[in-house]
Amino acid sequence: MRNIESGISATLSHVFRICRRHAYRPGLLGASVLTLGMALGGMPAKAATFTMTIAHLYPDDLTNNETAPSLKHFEQLVESATNGDIDVQIFGNGALGGEVEVAQQAQAGVTVQSIMLGSGTQASIFRNYEMITAPFLFPDYQTAWAFFDSPWFADFMKPMVKESGLRYLGTLDDGGGFVAFANNKRLIKTVKDIEGLKIRVEENQAHMAIVKALGGTPISLPWGEVQTGLATGLIDGHFHAPGVNDIFRLYDVTDYTTWTGHIYNTITWSVSEAWFSKLPENYKEIVIRSARESVKMAHGISAQISVVGWVNSCKKFKECYLLPDSEKQKMREVSQSYYRDWLVEEFGPQASRFDDIRTEVDRIKASLDEADKRYLN
Fold first, then answer.
1. What are phi and psi of 64, to 5 degrees?
2. Tens-digit pLDDT profile for residues 330-364
3. N or C: which end of the chain has fewer CB within 10 A?
């Protein structure tokens, strides 16, 4: 870079010496600058030492989801801090393949270096993550954000490096986090209304257990087959955050929606350890620091998308319903006991890890409540 700069300086000096010699003829200066521009255009740009290709499923649109703008911010931060020595390339819309496919590529770290995974696929490569998809785990957004951004959760995710070859960077809120049921049979107002409904779930055993607990029939179906499944009647409904329903126009194939908030859906952002380990230490710090800031930015964007998504849901679905807290409590009681039994059956003694998660969530909630009291005094 310094050689290029010195070359530019020398060339400019030469141009202006010519102009002074010829009593500054404007035409001559213009021609000289044009020649300089052509010469500089032919200079090869300094090639980046590292390429960080990031794959995700969301649209590349910067206005209708939190993933695209937060990754764009990450790209700007990293490329600026490394003077372009890390070239960040972002591919949305599933352009590089489905989640399972890009996860496998990221583990190798050759063609894809970083990925954003929904909770179902994430649980398939790091099994303990199924505990994070527990029913009614978080009471509100503040608690969820504080939990996912905490040192405690960073430590919880550390074993993923050895288990999958992927290093945890952060957690985004999948279309706004708290999910809403949507189906073509009836408007859900009570837990009884879920009975008998065929509900699409991700490839996530925890989600299947929760739907069973609420009386529905879980049908595991890849994301790309959801709209076809609804159109053919293979499934009656699904649950996603309102922002997802709006972004992907799921109201076109579904009639009723109820915002239950029974699960907090997430997007887990990780990077290939095989690629990350080759970075200089200062570049590692830049990637981590830039990712953490971008995650914080995504929280705010996703909250807006969630609110907008719900408002649009009530305009575009046939009917919408905001589940009251009293009915949420009934769902909580039914689903949590069933879920706890399922955990013990699936994880054995390791199910106690879930108790640690709930303890930490309760601690964070109590701390936030205590902080809120300052505004009352």
1. -115, 10
2. 999 999 989 999 999 999 999 999 999 999 999 99
3. C
Residues 6+ apart with CB under 8 A from 96: 53, 55, 102, 105, 111, 112
pTM, 2 dp: 0.85
What is the predicted pLDDT for the residue at 157? 98
pLDDT at 142 over 60: yes
Residue with tokens 């689903």: 335
Q: Where exactly are the structural domains of the chain?
A: 2-42, 50-126+151-170+269-300, 180-264+307-375
C-alpha–C-alpha distance, residues 74 and 121, integer Å: 23
* 50-126+151-170+269-300 matches 180-264+307-375 in fold: yes
- Comparing CA positions, the residue from 45, 32, 49, 51 lying closest to residue 3 is 45
Q: Decide if 317 contacts 238 (C-beta within 8 A).
A: no
User: How many CB atoms within 10 Å of residue 132?
Assistant: 25
* Angstrom distances, CA of residue 212 to CA of 198, 223, 336, 339: 10, 20, 12, 10
Kindly indicate the confidence band of residue 219, based on its pLDDT and cuts at 50, 70 and 90. Answer: very high
Give 217's strand partners.
198
Partnered with residue 118 across adjacent β-strands are 267
CA separation, residue 48 to residues 51, 52, 84, 88, 161 (Å):
7, 10, 6, 10, 26
Question: Which of 137, 126, 274 minimizes the C-alpha distance to 204?
Answer: 126
Class of 50-126+151-170+269-300 in CATH = alpha beta
pLDDT, tens only, 38-50: 444 444 467 999 9
**Fold (CATH) for 180-264+307-375:** D-Maltodextrin-Binding Protein; domain 2 (3.40.190)
Query: At CA 173, angle to CA 359 and CA 274, rounded to 5?
Result: 90
58 within 8 A of 67, measured Cβ to Cβ: yes
Whole-number pLDDT of residue 20: 45
